[in-house]
Amino acid sequence: MNSRYVVIDLETTGHSPLKSDKIIEVGIVVIENNTISKEYSTFLNPNKTIPPFISNLTGIKNEDVSHAPTFEEEANTIVSMFENSYLIAHNVPFDLGFLNEELAAINEKKLTNPVIDTVELARILYPQAPSFKLGQLAEYIGINHDDPHRALSDAYVTAQLFIMLIKKLEKLPYESIDQLLKLEKALKSDLYQLLYERQEKLAFSVEEQTNITSYKGLAYKQTEESKGHKQNVESSFGEYLDSIYEANGTMEQFMKSYEKRNGQREMSEDIFDAFQAKSHALIEAETGTGKSLAYLIPAVYEAVNSGKRIIISTYTTQLQTQLLDEEIPLIQELVPFSFKIALLKGKQHYISLEKFERELSSWEADNYDIALTKAMIIVWLTETETGDIDEIQLPSSGYLFFKRISTDSEEYTDPTSPWFSRSFYQKARKRAQQADIVITNHALLCTDMFNGYQFLPPYEKIIIDEAHHFEEIASKHYGLKLDYASINYILNQIGLAADGNWLGKLLVKYAINKEETLMDKWDEIFGLTKHEIDDLFRMIFQYVVDQQKFKKSFSDIGRIQYRFENEKEPPGNWRIITEMAARLTYYLRDLLHMLTQLKDHLTKQDLFDKNDIDEVQATIHSVKLFSDTIEKLFISEKNNDVKWIEIEAYGAKNAVHLYSEPIEIASFLTNDFFNKKQSVILTSATLTMKNSFTFIQNRLGLHSENTFTKKINSPFSYLDQVQLLIPDDFPDIKHGDLDSFIYSTCEAIMSLAEITNGRMLVLFTSYDMLKRAHSILKEAIDSTKFVLIAQGISSGSRSRLKKNFVNFDQSILLGTSSFWEGVDIPGEDLSCLVIARLPFQPPNHPVYEAKSSRLKEKGKNAFMELSLPNAVIRFKQGFGRLIRSANDRGIVFVCDARIVKTRYGKYFTDSIPNVPTTFNSTHVLMDKAEEWF
């Protein structure tokens, strides 16, 4: 690394120089011979007022820049520093774009230096980093960042980051550098010289990298094969628990400030008893029980003692990660014997080295996202031991590319293939076969269950955590879903034979097109299929729009929903839709017939390529799935299914999503799961309504004679830690006064924010209400004091929004749907939880509507049997966001007076821990809140 590199960072009055935003501070750091040799920093007078948000973020105030030089006065000094050098920035388009706009404004030449973007380079070389924002990236790789959002400090950290990135680059093997060089032209950074010098050095030296191996030009990390083991358990289960939980036990030795929780040992005993009795169990373990350890301790004992594996299934990957990174290492310290643990996910999570190598060797030009995805994967393969794509964060369209190279796209795996022994998925399966405990997710568990138990290794006992989601996931897996974007993407991947896509190349390669009949026929039918899909989905879109004039239903992400029943739809347009659907299935079957012909032809070739057959077989599978789904949704009749359509209200006229689910899944679960397994333990913090398990038992099809139930109370002192406040003076939505209700909610949020200094999570039951509240709060709230973050409006994933919430001292987070659970914000980061409405599902939600009708047919009360229990469990999940540790304190403010005024309100208050409750005017509640804090 002999070149000269100059790092720049700017602080500005806003994001866009085209909207007259100006530079207020410049920081420059020069790197020569791999070390920082020079620094430069100055304030610049923008000749305009600095917005309060920028002053808050950077600490730069108007008085700091009032006597500073203007950009024009410093321009020559700044430009001269970039002579004969690379320009480096953490997000080059922003800093270089700003600099060049300012230069153009004073009629100076724009900079045309070669550039390196450390965001892009970090994405490639640190693909497993949790974030690529400068502060979080610095923390991840151990760089101290004292003064974020100040130009010189940011430039200095970027320079240190760049030096570390170069060191990382110099550890990559020859094959990886060679592959990156082929992608370099499609990247934003000018990396050719760096990569070429590294390649030249490697070409003339022998660098031993013992843990890296390569095959067909692809370098990847060599993983050790695990050896078989047999452990004996020397003690009885009671002695084993004593040695862990009691005085001088291993928990006391290995856990800081350990305090015994009676409920935790109690839960371990209950699970072991259920295992021995070969019965099922429903165990509600309230927040603070420590349920992960409580179920892992008996699971490990039982698995090792019996020599039979136990499965643990979670709903979220977040909990899987927590189990593997935190709980399992602790259990290994706590128990007196060794055991084997394995994580197994669905095939779509694992990369296929064979498919990826094939994609790299194809010479088609990549767009930027695909080139970046390939570059990230090339480096990641030298680090990963699992091949699980969840380890890295790909660019958005990178996930569509990954579908093509995941193990899921391998229809048949040949054990004699040289790729078989290198397959990450096969290695994961082998580890699972040898493990005592296998951790998986509800999705794979249900896929396994409904496909003859062929994906997970055999098991008799299982623990299902986050079990309140189990029915929903089982229903989705037994149901169907299809959307225009997915079907269009797959068909575009296949393409016309005449376009020279993979299909056309196959026809040429195997000389099938000599007669030209198959090629011509394919293109004709394929064109008709695409045309029919466009027409059908546009027709469905318009049909839903027309029907919505009569009834409105919205999903929690703002889509319009429409439930359809083939035999009950008005004739006319619906008949046209079913005729179009039938025509589409004929075309898809014609394509299937031709693909099968092609596959048969390939297998008869003397030198057929297995990859070609895999590609054709995967395509056959996809096309058949589309055809079957269209037929089941629009043509065949199935009484046990609810079918519905979702459209993007303001999206493209074919932005259509189709779904079906069984109305009732209990009988399937009883027959296909509970009757086939010895012991199923279902646990969650929210399984009961008013201390009763009846609802969840009925929904899951668990027979009470073979099911043990237990509720384990939280060790937290809710009486001292929480105040529940409910206003008695809010407008009543029932009388159509939604706008006034939202205004009152926003006023309460603003008043509480002043008392709690932000630190507030606001939960909504609909995205529409969240948007309207955000719009009011954005105008009314003091933006110099509070940061407003809103799901679906502020950019970023749920975890990114949560991180932003924690990083800002005074923030208010508005959430819906997924924010009601699984968001842990312990300590002072969250002091106030506002629940806008009791979380009843809308009565016209398609699934609720169908289940409700079925219950009414059976003479049951749909509100008491379905709507209320679901809402109570959801409410308990929301309530549980506030208190996550014994030291947390806070307020729960419920804007919905139905919790007090209605007869069913007691079901909500009796289902949460006993807390002091005040039902009074908003004014009195604010005084109470101020006094509490």
UniProtKB/TrEMBL annotation:
<dbReference type="InterPro" id="IPR014013">
    <property type="entry name" value="Helic_SF1/SF2_ATP-bd_DinG/Rad3"/>
</dbReference>
<dbReference type="InterPro" id="IPR012337">
    <property type="entry name" value="RNaseH-like_sf"/>
</dbReference>
<dbReference type="Pfam" id="PF00270">
    <property type="entry name" value="DEAD"/>
</dbReference>
<keyword id="KW-0540">Nuclease</keyword>
<dbReference type="InterPro" id="IPR006054">
    <property type="entry name" value="DnaQ"/>
</dbReference>
<dbReference type="InterPro" id="IPR006555">
    <property type="entry name" value="ATP-dep_Helicase_C"/>
</dbReference>
<dbReference type="Pfam" id="PF13307">
    <property type="entry name" value="Helicase_C_2"/>
</dbReference>
<dbReference type="GO" id="GO:0006260">
    <property type="term" value="P:DNA replication"/>
</dbReference>
<dbReference type="GO" id="GO:0043139">
    <property type="term" value="F:5'-3' DNA helicase activity"/>
</dbReference>
<dbReference type="GO" id="GO:0016818">
    <property type="term" value="F:hydrolase activity, acting on acid anhydrides, in phosphorus-containing anhydrides"/>
</dbReference>
<feature type="domain" description="Helicase ATP-binding">
    <location>
        <begin position="250"/>
        <end position="524"/>
    </location>
</feature>
<dbReference type="InterPro" id="IPR027417">
    <property type="entry name" value="P-loop_NTPase"/>
</dbReference>
<dbReference type="InterPro" id="IPR013520">
    <property type="entry name" value="Ribonucl_H"/>
</dbReference>
<feature type="binding site">
    <location>
        <begin position="285"/>
        <end position="292"/>
    </location>
    <ligand>
        <name>ATP</name>
    </ligand>
</feature>
<dbReference type="InterPro" id="IPR011545">
    <property type="entry name" value="DEAD/DEAH_box_helicase_dom"/>
</dbReference>
<dbReference type="InterPro" id="IPR036397">
    <property type="entry name" value="RNaseH_sf"/>
</dbReference>
<protein>
    <recommendedName>
        <fullName>3'-5' exonuclease DinG</fullName>
        <ecNumber>3.1.-.-</ecNumber>
    </recommendedName>
</protein>
<dbReference type="Pfam" id="PF00929">
    <property type="entry name" value="RNase_T"/>
</dbReference>
<dbReference type="InterPro" id="IPR014001">
    <property type="entry name" value="Helicase_ATP-bd"/>
</dbReference>
<comment type="function">
    <text>3'-5' exonuclease.</text>
</comment>
<keyword id="KW-0347">Helicase</keyword>
<dbReference type="GO" id="GO:0005524">
    <property type="term" value="F:ATP binding"/>
</dbReference>
<feature type="short sequence motif" description="DEAH box">
    <location>
        <begin position="465"/>
        <end position="468"/>
    </location>
</feature>
<dbReference type="GO" id="GO:0008408">
    <property type="term" value="F:3'-5' exonuclease activity"/>
</dbReference>
<keyword id="KW-0067">ATP-binding</keyword>
<feature type="domain" description="Helicase ATP-binding">
    <location>
        <begin position="272"/>
        <end position="498"/>
    </location>
</feature>
<dbReference type="InterPro" id="IPR006310">
    <property type="entry name" value="DinG"/>
</dbReference>
<comment type="similarity">
    <text>Belongs to the helicase family. DinG subfamily. Type 2 sub-subfamily.</text>
</comment>
<dbReference type="InterPro" id="IPR045028">
    <property type="entry name" value="DinG/Rad3-like"/>
</dbReference>
<keyword id="KW-0547">Nucleotide-binding</keyword>
<dbReference type="GO" id="GO:0003887">
    <property type="term" value="F:DNA-directed DNA polymerase activity"/>
</dbReference>
<dbReference type="GO" id="GO:0003677">
    <property type="term" value="F:DNA binding"/>
</dbReference>
<keyword id="KW-0378">Hydrolase</keyword>
<keyword id="KW-0269">Exonuclease</keyword>
